[in-house]
């Protein structure tokens, strides 16, 4: 009994999940969490962090411990007497070597700075990819809303045409309508049925596209909520260009790559400079041929301390033949820097035009929506009047269906301009804040 109750509750919970209605914000957050292509790109940040950590490690002194065990057979040099011997013997060598750069043209500092800006560029690029994913979700979300709305509008038109056909058939029985009126009503009904089926199919395709972007379970049902058109006066477009330059992830990415290219020039410049390093080495060993006066091999612990020697000093490296390749790499780095600089200036100019276009289209879309909303209300009143007139025989069937079609088109255009205005509002807010949500 308990098992049956648990099974029923599980089925109910699954059904509830399947019937969940989602806002566009929830769809975006779901896509960010489950879209594999987007989450795969986050691995690049981890890789850049490792590159940055490696450059930090390069600031540490280079310390190595070396141990060697060697067996000599045949003719060789006795390490104790330096005489030629044919006896078999073994020896151990141990050493600790350390070195640190005193000056290398600030190569390590510039490499660290280079990786730091690449890491920043990758982080801002992930933000850009996140916004691109959000825009993709919103566009398909708006497309789905449009197709659902158009399906609903044509379903209403189909129901109106069905009632009108039934009414004409009743009137024909009493001799108050012509046979041609019935034919006309059936033709309109068939047309509305086709439109209803057509937009129903488009709505299903849009749902499939939305699931694909979100990586939503393909066998689960998804329902979406209507959007809320905010007040355009709440969108402050003053100093829009300055805000975009400050907040857009794309600009941050290009700027960070430009700074990284500048550090690359400094890295290649440092490779032309002499480098000065300090070193300190400790060596010792154990030799089977080292014996005392009695001919017995001296103990390991005694040899370990007796054979110890240290060396330290400075090492100067001056590039000679390798300088030709370094100069070519420096030239290439300078070209890459100027290329990044031109890309940055070009993108800034493109964004300036994009902002003007986005601002103007927002104003135009708002005006179109307000105008179409008023027009739709007018057409609704006109159609209501036409319904009364057709019942009283005051207008022809052609005039009635023309009024009906105008009303349907006005409602469709109102819906289309509303979704268009919503997308323009999202775009402008993105330019102002650098975020879709």
Summarize the structure.
With 437 residues, the protein is an alpha+beta fold. It has a single domain (22-60, 104-273, 319-433), classed as Outer membrane efflux proteins (OEP), CATH 1.20.1600.10. It is built from eleven helices and eight strands.
Name the descriptors.
4-stranded antiparallel sheet; alpha+beta; 437 residues; Outer membrane efflux proteins (OEP)
Description:
The strands form three sheets. The chain has a four-stranded antiparallel β-sheet, with helices on one face. A two-stranded parallel sheet has the order 1-6. A hairpin with a 6-residue loop joins β3 and β4 (84-85). It is of the alpha+beta class and 437 residues long. The model is unreliable at 8-18 (pLDDT under 50). It has helices spanning 2-18, 24-34, 36-41, 43-57, 107-173, 179-214, 240-247, 249-270, 300-306, 323-391, 397-433, and strands spanning 21-22, 62-72, 76-77, 84-85, 89-103, 223-224, 275-287, 309-317. The radius of gyration is 40 Å and the shape is elongated. The chain has one domain (22-60, 104-273, 319-433): Outer membrane efflux proteins (OEP).
């Amino acid at each position: 009994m308990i098992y049956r109750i648990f099974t029923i509750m599980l089925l109910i919970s699954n059904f509830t999940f399947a019937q969940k209605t989602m806002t566009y914000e929830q769809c975006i957050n779901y896509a960010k969490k489950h879209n594999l292509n987007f989450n795969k790109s986050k691995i690049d940040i981890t890789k850049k962090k490792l590159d940055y950590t490696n450059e930090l490690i390069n600031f540490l002194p280079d310390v190595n411990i070396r141990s060697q065990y060697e067996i000599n057979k045949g003719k060789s040099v006795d390490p104790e007497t330096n005489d030629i011997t044919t006896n078999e013997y073994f020896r151990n060598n141990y050493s600790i070597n350390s070195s640190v750069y005193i000056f290398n043209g600030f190569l390590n500092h510039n490499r660290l700075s280079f990786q730091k800006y690449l890491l920043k560029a990758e982080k801002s690029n992930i933000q850009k990819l996140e916004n691109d994913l959000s825009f993709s979700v919103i566009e398909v979300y708006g497309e789905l809303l449009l197709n659902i709305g158009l399906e609903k509008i044509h379903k209403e038109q189909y129901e109106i045409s069905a009632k009108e056909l039934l009414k004409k058939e009743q009137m024909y029985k009493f001799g108050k309508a012509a046979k041609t009126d019935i034919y006309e009503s059936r033709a309109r009904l068939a047309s509305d049925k086709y439109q209803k089926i057509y937009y129903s199919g488009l709505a299903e395709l849009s749902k499939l596209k939305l699931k694909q972007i979100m990586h939503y379970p393909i066998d689960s049902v998804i329902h979406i909520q209507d959007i809320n058109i905010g007040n355009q006066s709440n969108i402050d477009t003053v100093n829009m260009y300055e805000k975009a330059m400050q907040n857009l992830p794309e600009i941050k990415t290009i700027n960070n790559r430009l700074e990284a290219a500048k550090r690359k020039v400094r890295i290649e410049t440092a490779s032309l400079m002499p480098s000065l390093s300090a070193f300190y080495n400790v060596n010792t060993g154990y030799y089977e041929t080292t014996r005392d006066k009695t001919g017995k091999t001296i103990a390991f612990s005694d040899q370990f301390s007796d054979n110890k020697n240290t060396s330290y000093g400075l090492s100067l490296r001056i590039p000679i033949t390798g300088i030709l390749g370094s100069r070519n790499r420096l030239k290439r780095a300078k070209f890459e820097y100027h290329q990044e600089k031109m890309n940055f200036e070009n993108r800034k100019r493109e964004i300036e035009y994009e902002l003007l276009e986005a601002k103007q289209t927002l104003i135009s879309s708002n005006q179109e929506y307000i105008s179409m909303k008023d027009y739709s209300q007018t057409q609704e009143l006109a159609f209501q009047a036409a319904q009364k007139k057709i019942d009283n025989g005051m207008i022809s069937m052609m005039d009635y269906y023309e009024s009906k079609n105008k009303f349907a088109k006005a409602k469709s255009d109102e819906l289309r301009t509303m979704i268009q205005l919503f997308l323009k509002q999202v775009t402008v807010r993105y330019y102002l804040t650098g975020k879709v949500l």
